[in-house]
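Researcher: I'm preparing a figure for a lab meeting and need a structural model of a single chain. I don't have an experimental structure, so a prediction will have to do for now. The sequence is pasted below. Please return the structure as tokens so I can convert it later.
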Amino acid sequence: MSVLFRHWLAESPVQKRRRAIGNTIGRVARRIDSIRPRRFGIAVLACVLFQPAAGPEVKEIRRVAVFYELGLASPAVAIADREMRAALENSHYQIELYPEYLETTLFDDPADQQQFRESYIRKYQNRRPDLIIALGPSPLRFMIDSHEIFFAGIPVVFGGTSEQQADNPTLDSQFTGCWEMFEPAKTLDVALRLQPSSRHVVVVGGVSSFDKHLEAIFRERLHSYEAILDFTYLTNLDMPTLLERLKHLPDHTIVLYTHIGMDAKGTRYVGASQAGPMVAQAANAPVFGPSDVDLEHGEVGGYLQSFAKEGKIVGGIAARILNGERPQDIPVVRGANIYMFDWRALRRWGFRASALPPGSLVLYRPPTLWQRTKWVWIVALVIMLCLSVLALYLRLKRAKDRQMGLSGMLITAQERERSRLASEIHDDFSQRLALMALELETAEETIGTSPDEAVQRVHNILNFASELGADLHTLSHRLHSSTLERLGLVPGITALCKEFAVQQGIEIEFLTDNVPRSVHPDVALCLFRIVQEGLRNLKKHSGTAKAQVRLRRVGDKLLVSVVDEGIGFNVHDLREKEGLGVRSMEERAFLLGGRFEIHSKPGKGTRIEASVPLQQKSERRQDEIESKVDDGLNRRATGNPEINS
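Model: Understood. Here is the structure written out token by token.
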């Protein structure tokens, strides 16, 4: 029984679910066999009709064991772990992480570490993970020593260690990952660019194994600079003595901080959050650190080992393996470094950000004016846009309402004009024609008895017919001026002014200046109607006995004005009392691309002005085409080689 129980524990959750589903299906099948055929049919129908909707797809589970050198209290481990977990979310599977912490700084006794290893081997002997991640030199050495015997076939992704720190191991095809690369020479180059007058370099470190490892890397990589700079290594001091030395460094000094996990008195520190800030605050020279976790406590920065970037790389490689790639097909990444700086430290030491290498990441930079106020500008822009749209909508609505009002007024005016014409024709011309018919009838009756009287009546009828014809001509002329079509704009307006003066008893002075003989019919009709309507309004409202109409050419436009010295009015009141006449004049000028204005003041008369382009767009375009054609023909006639070719 215990063997079966252990076998059940070793099964994956997916196998357990499949076994449970199989048992359930078996019980249902046996129950169905016992149901009578009639009930069986009902049960089948119910299953078809009431089948539940399919639930969301369940991801398969993959187990990942993660062995850490240190716990999450270490800032480097914490940031690398966070980015690694985020990268693992790109896997197609549901990831179950099993974190294990060797804590080699707390349990540095080899016997303790051996016990940890044996316990992990027993723990995962019958519950093998699908992938192992080793973060640190000790976890990597543990995997190298035990992989072939206890974890054979399980891919291993490593990180959190340099190749030298891991004793330059030989890895088999199941291992891949990221080697850390500390490059203090590039950090020193940047420091010299920021502070070209530097002559002294002080390297600060501790006495733990990791401290000594970094010190060895710094000594090796910076050896070539010793010929031009004065180097001092403060790596074997207790913390109080070290801090006192840092307070009295000579001018033109650069401080390179490696790591202090333990000082010369055996006091342990967390390098990034404890020792590093104390060094940066005590030093009277700029301090450049080794990694991104050392940056936020006063260090300037440099070409830093980025534990955040390393965590992304390790997590990305692990996700690729879980998704089906083979570890031997994924090359080992060497270095996760980036130029990174603290803007506050740059400003403290007077360094220029423009001297930094291209692509450098500068943290803690205060927001620019745009970054601080961009939402204010965006909101203001949105408000302005909304107001513009609203103004456009109101303008269009006002134009539409005005157009509708004008249309209504035009319909009303049309009906009034029709009524007036009908009344005039009926009451005047019809009566006069009827009277002529009676006169003709009377003349016919008197021809035989009194020829002389008949002749007299016929002469009267002829005079009457002539008067009737003249009145019909006047009516027709009011509706449409034939003079305008036959003779042109100037004669048409001249005839209009003379006729108006005779009929209304108002003296009209008509002046012209440089008006062409031929004017586009639409332009001529527009100006004629404006003068006609202006004279009507003058007669109706001005109370003057004298007025002036002036037509002149200014550039490519024709300007017409109707001026009187009558009683005038307040132009601001015009919008409230604006009638069809004024609107029709405005619309006529606007439709031809012109303008219309009224200037008036109470007691100072009225001035109506309108200007219209002399040529319409289609006519101007035709003139341009004809001009180009004429130029081309002239060049051909003169033998221009460009044209002949």
